Amino acid sequence: MAIPAGEVLFLDTNILVAATDESRPFHAVARMLIARGRTAGLHGATSGQVIREYLVVATRPLSANGLALSPADALGNIGKMIRHLQFCDEPESVSIRLRSLVGAREISGKAIHDANIVATLLEHGIESLATENPEDFARYPGIGMVRLSEVEAQLSAADGPR
After folding, report:
1. Which stretches of the chain are assigned E, i.e. beta strand?
2. Which of 12, 31, 122, 147 shows the greatest Cβ crowding within 10 Å of its Cβ?
3. Domains plus CATH for the chain?
């Protein structure tokens, strides 16, 4: 599936984690999407929420499904990644949209984190979310979900022959 050139892809936390953790499927694709996605016409975006979530996972112990990185290493990784990404702020309008989604769809618990990502996308006019957990966002029509496997060929073609 080719994604139109110029498309903004909001990157879910699991994409940043995959880019860091060499044992994850599509590690290389996640790194390529972040570092060289623009070459393929794919512009990555993130938000403060995703950065916070990444820092939680990156610094959490391995025994708690984390990456066991030091805070300095996790911050260094974020510093390298965000140089390549558009930053979507979360003004009050995102909070208003989040509250609307929670009320209209009766969202509760951890699913509110995902609803906030959707609110951020909607408020910034972004229609595509790169995630390895599309089922978490299936309740939101109008948000296109893209898995790393779907952008792999497009990124490789833009990268050229090796």
Report:
1. 7-11, 42-47, 86-88, 128-130, 144-146
2. 12
3. 7-89+127-159 (3.40.50.1010)
